[in-house]
């Protein structure tokens, strides 16, 4: 999508990522992270005697899927619907890695049909949220509520001008856009979480600094979640998150269309309209100081390499198509790093080739990030918050 139509759509999406909206999501994100980290530790403890590590790729994927569902459509996706949703999303992921032969019984056909069902489910969630927000009796509790609150306001303004609807406001359209959000939040975040664990394990000095910073701002024994203000104070942990994304950008190739003739070299100009696949991965290792080294300090206020080498930091894209949800994605990674390192002691089960890159479809460690886990604190937010509050939000 290009031009004014694209600008209009992004303008309507923007209210989903205001500071107020992000603050609402932050609480939901933490609740689900805590629920799953507790489960991870329990799984790890069951293997302690056998001295077996656990691979966390699928575990992280499941955590992110539940996070996306809850943050994006919250109470409008019931338990049975979530189970069907997860099944269809699995079919979509499998089909994404197969050749595009659209014949009955093929993985690609199964994926295409699954996407239609997923978008339809999200359209139904949109309708329920729209009905709720029209009453104006409750504050938004998830992304679709913030979106519908703004859509309803725009529809009312349109009616004053004799127009019965507003652009990009049908349930089907919004369901499709929500699916795009889900894909971006699910697979890319899973990749970043895995590489964060792998890189923190191989860089103990960075891990120590993260734990020191987080401990000075938030305590897992405080019976409180991390606030939006505390999250903003975690400057070094944010730098670690950004360096994880630079060092291992989840989507290594992102297709674009040349909007104009573009001189790539002295001898070759990309014609307007050409589909181009710039490598976000290769770009991340150009320009930066010692780009092959994992160095979170490059994103410090003193060095600001994300600004100096802005044209090379393409994990979230650039220009008018830059990822609209990048702050949400970074918040999720920072929250995970802060909680994971504070609540859990971990060690990689290292073997030859474990850090080689595989595509599933975003990149992850070849061994699915196998780790040994144990609880780090004797009494922490695990018990209090999980037991008293988690089911208020999750068991809908």
Automatic annotation (TrEMBL):
Coiled coil: none annotated. The keyword Iron applies. CDD domains: CYP61_CYP710. Keywords: Heme, Iron, Membrane, Metal-binding, Monooxygenase, Oxidoreductase, Transmembrane, Transmembrane helix. It is a single-pass membrane protein. One of its GO terms (molecular function) is monooxygenase activity. InterPro entries: Cyt_P450, Cyt_P450_CS, Cyt_P450_E_grp-I, Cyt_P450_sf. GO terms for biological process: sterol metabolic process. PROSITE patterns: CYTOCHROME_P450. Heme binds at residue 323. It is found in: Membrane. Its cofactor is heme. The keyword Heme applies. Its main location: membrane. GO terms for cellular component: membrane. It catalyses: 5-dehydroepisterol + NADPH + O2 + H(+) = ergosta-5,7,22,24(28)-tetraen-3beta-ol + NADP(+) + 2 H2O. SUPFAM superfamilies: Cytochrome P450. Belongs to the cytochrome P450 family. This is C-22 sterol desaturase. The lineage of its organism: Eukaryota, Viridiplantae, Streptophyta, Embryophyta, Tracheophyta.
């Amino acid at each position: 999508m290009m031009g004014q139509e694209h600008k209009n759509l992004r303008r309507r999406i923007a209210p989903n990522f205001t500071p107020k909206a992000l603050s609402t999501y932050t609480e939901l994100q933490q609740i689900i992270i805590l629920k799953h980290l507790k489960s991870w530790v329990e799984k790890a403890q069951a293997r302690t005697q056998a001295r077996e590590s656990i691979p966390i790729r699928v575990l992280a994927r499941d955590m992110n899927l539940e996070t996306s569902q809850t943050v994006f459509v919250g109470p409008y996706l019931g338990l049975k619907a979530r189970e069907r949703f997860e099944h269809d999303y699995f079919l979509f992921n499998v089909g994404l890695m197969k050749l595009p032969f659209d014949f009955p019984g093929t993985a690609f056909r199964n994926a295409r049909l699954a996407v239609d069902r997923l978008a339809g489910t999200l359209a139904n969630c949109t309708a329920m949220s729209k009905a709720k927000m029209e009453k104006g009796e409750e504050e938004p509790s998830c992304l679709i509520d913030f979106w519908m609150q703004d859509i309803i306001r725009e529809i009312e303004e349109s009616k004053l001008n004799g127009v019965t609807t507003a652009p990009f406001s049908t349930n089907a359209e919004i369901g499709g856009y929500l699916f795009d959000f889900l894909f971006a939040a699910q697979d890319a975040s899973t990749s970043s979480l895995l590489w964060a664990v792998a890189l923190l394990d191989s860089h103990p000095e960075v891990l120590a600094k993260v734990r020191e910073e987080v401990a000075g701002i938030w305590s897992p024994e405080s019976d409180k979640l991390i606030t939006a203000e505390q999250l903003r104070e975690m400057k070094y942990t944010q730098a670690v998150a950004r360096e994880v994304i630079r060092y291992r950008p989840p989507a290594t190739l992102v297709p674009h269309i040349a909007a104009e003739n573009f001189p790539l070299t002295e001898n070759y100009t990309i014609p307007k309209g050409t589909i181009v696949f710039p490598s976000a991965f290769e770009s991340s290792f150009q320009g930066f100081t010692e780009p092959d080294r994992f160095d979170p300090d490059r994103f410090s206020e003193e060095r600001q390499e994300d600004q100096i080498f802005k044209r090379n930091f393409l994990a979230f894209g650039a220009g008018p198509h830059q990822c609209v949800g990048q702050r949400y994605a970074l918040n999720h990674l920072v929250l995970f790093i802060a909680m994971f390192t504070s609540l859990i002691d971990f060690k990689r089960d290292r073997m030859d080739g474990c850090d080689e890159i595989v595509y599933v479809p975003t990149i992850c460690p070849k061994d699915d990030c196998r780790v040994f886990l144990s609880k780090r604190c004797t009494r922490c937010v695990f018990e209090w918050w999980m037991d008293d509050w988690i089911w208020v939000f999750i068991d809908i």
